[in-house]
Amino acid sequence: MASMSHSSIALGGASASASDYLRSSANGVTGVSLRALGRRTMVTATTRSSNLYVTARLKKGKKFDHPWPANPDPNVKGGVLSYLSEFKPLGNAQKPVTLDFERPLVELEKKIVDVRKMAEETGLDFTEQIITLETKYRQALKDLYTHLTPIQRVNIARHPNRPTFLDHIHNITDKFMELHGDRAGYDDPAIVTGIGTIDGKRYMFIGHQKGRNTKENIMRNFGMPTPHGYRKALRMMYYADHHGFPIVTFIDTPGAYADLKSEEKGQGEAIANNLRTMFGLKVPILSIVIGEGGSGGALAIGCANKMLMLENAVFYVASPEACAAILWQTSKAAPEAAEKLRITSKELVNLNVADGIIPEPLGGAHADPSWTSQQIKIAINENMNEFGKMSGEELLKHRMAKYRKIGVFIEGEPVEPEKKINMKRRDAVASTSRNLEGEVEKLREQILKAKEASPESDEGEELSSQVLKEMIEKLKSDIDEEYTKAAKAMGLEERLAATREEFSKANAEEHLMHPVLIERIEKLKEEFNARLSEAPNYESLKAKLDMLKDFSRAKAASDAASVKKEINKRFQEAVERPEVREKVEAVKAEVASSGASSFEELSDELKEKVLKTKREVEAEMAVVLKSMGLELEAVKPNLKEVVAESPNENIQEKIEKLNREITEKIEEVVRTPEIKSMVELLKVETAKASQMPDQGSQKIEALEMQIKQKIADALSMSGLQEKQEELEKELAAARELAGEESDESVKEDDDDDEDGSGSGRSEIINPSFA
């Protein structure tokens, strides 16, 4: 390097003292006054000997933005030292972020805004329309957020506007002092620790901290801690254990940072050390999952006496995307992976991994962060009051027991009662079918033996009916299990359970079901039925359903035959009673002595006697039916001859056509949401009444009357009632022409009934009864 002259450089014509200059005795460079550098931005030095020019440009630095305001408030929440915190209120509000499944809600919101804008511009009153749209929006919001799928909850847990650890801390604490550093050279901003008070009680708070925007996320490393962060948390745990502060940890991380530098600095060792230490702390530890809890990065501050989860939080060993990439080689299968992993709060509580769920507002925690924070505060107070009654040793045992009870194992029992390893699906179905066929064959042999033992008694029929009933119940139980397996395979189990729970709640409140719920049930049914053939156990389920149908038909026929036999037996006993038999014989004798060949030739007095006796016999029949729990609606005459002798040859076709129209109209009315909800409620009440016969009968009768009245009103408005009345007049005219049925025709009808043919009967559906 060329040497420079030792002559002083005069800046601004002012001389400077020796202390104001920087000098170097090694290279002989003349120093420059620091004050001069502050005043001048360009310094030029010139060597006279070699014409060498050295130019240096000093940029004027930005003034340091000190965190203390000009007039600090000594009573600021959290104390004056909170001014040192890097977590400041955002200058601009966070931009709203709409998730894919929330788009229908955004469309409704847009409609509400448009209608309000139109009302302001035109001056017209759109209050009713706005109220309708807002009601529809609230209902849609409720329906959406009460039936979220696992992958949707994952997206809510990752929502950019979801409140972070420090958001909750500032909402729930009276004072909070952040503590920094791991005392090993670094302060990891991805984990925040500090001491805070809630209602006068002091706690040590430790939590993962994500950013609220891109700049903060980069600074916080997206909530993924390095080993320094876990060692900072460990230092604070020791500090809390020494001073007796209860520890509250907030989990919200996709996982520990897995870069090369973190691994070199002992990421695994830091996590393992935290796990070991937390099981030895003699102060209460409460962990709360406020977002996503990923793998060991979450568990490193999560070994607590209790772990609570926000309603839409998730906790997993591997993210759904990573799991899908491993199992199916594509992250697009993340929704299916999320269902299989069972990572939601409700599922983890059922598995005893989590100990409780903290509710969130509809729309997620970001919809109302303050309310969510207050729910967290309530949960902390409740659990810490419970832990406050335990000693240090009891807390250690409680913490150990929590993790020892996770998972279930059974000793001394085979994994499968039958060998099904490497069995193909068709082989499994064939095995199930063979088992069922064997049981059916045993049932048939049992019934035949009973009939051979007592062919003329009713014991064989009773036994066959009882065996059929047991077989049907067993099949129904098997079919329920098959449906459950199919729902699991299709990933609909959670939705079905949620719908069933909401349906039960609606029935428990004794209100008619909301049309939206009915529509959702119908859509779920359609989706289930459409995808049922894809289930791996579909063939087995189909075989059992076919068998159940056959058994049900056999049991119905058996029951009908038994009832018919019992009715005939009791009716015969009633008719054979002396007083009834004498009346019938007397009337028969008078008819025989009159010499008349038809009913029309009888005298009016004898006609009256015949009709009176007939009514008495019908009354006896009604008494018999009532004693069996049946009710006689009406006695229908055999119209075979009436129709045949009627001048109108198309009367039978008219009856059939009217019956078809009435049936179609009834089906149309029953499909309406109002009648559907009433029918569903009636089914539930009937099921309840079967378990508690003394209760609910009045409600069932009232519901039946309401349904009948609704159908009758619909039929009367459709004009079918007038058609029925006209046709009844035609039938009445035909009866007058043909006369009443003779005793012979009555006997023929009885024979037809015993044969089961029932031919020649023409009846019109009674709308008020249907």
From TrEMBL:
Record carries keyword Protease: no
Keywords: ATP-binding, Coiled coil, Fatty acid biosynthesis, Fatty acid metabolism, Lipid biosynthesis, Lipid metabolism, Nucleotide-binding, Transferase
The name this protein goes by in its record: acetyl-CoA carboxytransferase
Gene Ontology CC entries for this record: acetyl-CoA carboxylase complex
InterPro entries tied to this protein: Acetyl_CoA_COase_a_su, ClpP/crotonase-like_dom_sf, COA_CT_C
GO BP, sorted A to Z: fatty acid biosynthetic process; malonyl-CoA biosynthetic process
Summary of the function given for this chain in its UniProt record: Component of the acetyl coenzyme A carboxylase (ACC) complex. First, biotin carboxylase catalyzes the carboxylation of biotin on its carrier protein (BCCP) and then the CO(2) group is transferred by the carboxyltransferase to acetyl-CoA to form malonyl-CoA.
